[in-house]
Amino acid sequence: MTDPTQVQFFSYDDADALHPVPGIEMRAVFGAGASVNLVDLASGAELPLHSHPHEQIGVVLEGVLVLIVGGREHRLGVNEACVVPGGVEHGGRGGPEGCRVLDVFIPGREDYRSAAAPPRVPPSSPTS
What we know:
It is built from no helices and seven strands.
């Protein structure tokens, strides 16, 4: 059985935001084998085409994300997701109202460690 005292708790509000380009703000949480980024893109804010060795799974939480892959634009709305394998060139931009996306990177993106939320003291009782 795994030790339950190894469970960590985080709040994205405790993280120092990283701004990779104007209009894009991200905060991260790191586990042993993955990182999970909360990313806000302003309307029209563009992340240029790029690639990385990490698998990336993105879920749109608010608004519309325009994902660009293979020269095509794909519009993703709330509760829609994408999986970008490592090494695939992609980019994106915020839709007309901007968007909020939850991105999972496997393995974790160490280059985003500066945007990581520090662990919190575990809550002693459930919150409502």
